[in-house]
Amino acid sequence: CKKGYIFDGFPRNIEQANLLEKLNKEHNEYIDYVFYFEIPFPEIIQRLSNRRVCKKCSTNYNLLFNPPKKVISCDLCGGELYQREDDKEETIKNRLEVFTKQTVPLKKYYEEKKLLKVIDANLSENAFLTIKEILQGMHK
């Protein structure tokens, strides 16, 4: 892409990072930044396990931060709310375990290459502003 691109959730491990680096070299491209959104695991578990989705219109709710008026039904269409399998606490814990083993080592990998920008994702509004400032700084 002439204007650049953003990967979300990739690479997930060192092997993928090495392959991406090789591919970039072949195309004379490079990575400007790697954003690492840092948030405590208990906060991730709390946010995700309290997410509910409408079966009819797919509207998302969070029982703590953006609750529906009725716990069982969507405010917009009256559809039934449910918890996705991926949002169940045990599933989240398993995913975080895999993340710790496979993806956390990438933090050091990109830190050593001076590409890593750690973003405090616990403060959502500040996270956006931080990213915006970094990206605007690229074009100065």
Automatic annotation (TrEMBL):
The keyword Transferase applies. Keywords: Kinase, Nucleotide-binding, Transferase. One of its GO terms (molecular function) is AMP kinase activity. The keyword Kinase applies. Residues 51-86 form the Adenylate kinase active site lid domain. Pfam families: ADK (PF00406), ADK_lid (PF05191). InterPro entries: Adenylat/UMP-CMP_kin, Adenylat_kinase_CS, Adenylate_kinase_lid-dom, ADK_active_lid_dom_sf, P-loop_NTPase. PANTHER family: NUCLEOTIDE KINASE. This is Adenylate kinase active site lid domain-containing protein.
